[in-house]
Amino acid sequence: MEFKQEDAVKLTEWYEKNHRDLPWRDTGDPYHVWISEIMLQQTRIEAVIVKYQIFVHELPDIASLAAVQDDRLMRLWEGLGYYSRARNLKKCAQVLVKDYGGKLPENYEELVRLPGIGPYTAGAVASIAYGKPVPAVDGNVLRILARLFLTESDIKDPHTKDALQETLTPAYASEQIRAGAFNQGLMELGQLICVPNGAPRCTECPLAESCLAYRENRTGDIPFRSKPNKRKCEERTLVIVRDEKRFVIRKRDDAGLLAGLYEFPGIGKHCDPQELRTMLALYIPEIQRLHRLPDAKHIFSHIEWHMQAYEVLVDDIRSLSLPENCIALTKEEMASAAIPSAFRTYIDYYRLRSY
Ligand code: SF4
Asked: Does the structure show a pLDDT above 90 at 317?
């Protein structure tokens, strides 16, 4: 099983002619390649484009990323999800400033040792920004290779992944191939032509002549992927404490889901108004009004939050003794607080932000 050099040439030519004009393409700037590749992991390209442009405008280089305040970084990342990616970007930028003169190294081996940079990102930066002949294999590329070679084993199995990645080695040996264009050709083919769920556009594919899944009419069942574990459902009750001018929000722990971001305070179960009043009595001696807001659901990769929410109206938030991790913000300040999109139903309900 090996990726033929003639197919690598065809794919690279196809890429040069057909690739989309995206803001991070053809800049050749390693910082831009790095930021875009991290943003594109687990986030749709349409959602990334504007966020990427704002991010590199606000933080134009590694030094500015290393020095950015956490709250501002989280705000810039909002809507992209998986916030640990942003924290790792900053951590990595700090290492680059301290140990690498504020530059991303050229070698795959050095890149892959940096915080938050895995084999795919290291391969993408090394090949696209520095022209190094190394692979950058993500889910899109694995799907193409599995179909090309009619691989029937589980694509999630590390052995399958390694074997498929290994097929690419001969392609990089060709002097006709620019590794960056070839790797981007694979990524682009996976996003535009060799799409998932049994609907690839094989008649437009530059690899069609060599593709075994196409030849044997098996594109509907290749790649094979074992079933994911079921998502865990968690009940939550949000307590939206407010007065005429302010809202109470709470900073989440520094580790775990949505670490370090702000949220409406909550309880990890559903509860009725009476139960809630009893729990709140310690912090809020006098509630003016307590009423139920619409329910909401938010789906993370492994967890679903099933949220109910109560508005707790008080006379003046400033008279309350709030827990240490809670703060009161005005409506205007809420607009720029780093509150993740999991709470969007309630942000929209109070018209706290325009997206
Ligand atoms: S021929 Fe079809 S299945 Fe094969 S690589 Fe191309 S798009 Fe994918």
From this structure: yes
- d(CA 122, CA 134) in angstroms, rounded, equals 9
Residue nearest to atom 1 of ligand 1 (CA): 208
Q: Name 57's Cβ contacts closer than 8 Å, sequence gap at least 6.
A: none
Q: For residues 147 and 140, is the Cβ–Cβ distance under 8 A?
A: no
Which of 205, 216, 221, 224 maximizes ligand 1 atoms within 8 Å of its Cβ, making it the mutation to test the pocket?
205
Which domains are assigned to the chain? 5-215 (1.10.340.30), 232-349 (3.90.79.10)
pTM of the model: 0.73
Nearest CA to ligand 1 atom 2: 202
Dihedral through CA 27, CA 33, CA 35, CA 41, nearest 10?
130
CA-nearest of 316, 312, 311, 309 to 244 is 316
Beta carbons of 250 and 265 less than 8 angstroms apart: yes
Q: Whose CA is nearest to atom 4 of ligand 1?
A: 211
For ligand 1, mutation pick of 140, 204, 209, 211 (most atoms within 8 Å of CB) = 211
**Which tokens hold the place of 237?**
């009750």
| Other CB atoms within 10 Å distance of the CB of residue 292 | 12
Cα of 174 from ligand 1 centre, angstroms: 22
pLDDT of residue 354: 58
The tens digit of pLDDT for each residue in 155-200 reads 999 999 999 999 999 999 888 889 999 999 999 999 999 999 878 9
Mean pLDDT of the chain: 92
Amino acid at 246: R
Can you tell me the mean pLDDT for 275-297?
A: 92
Contacts 24+ apart (CB under 8 A), 332-338: 334/247, 334/249, 336/75, 337/71, 337/75, 337/249, 337/262, 338/71, 338/74, 338/75, 338/78, 338/261, 338/262
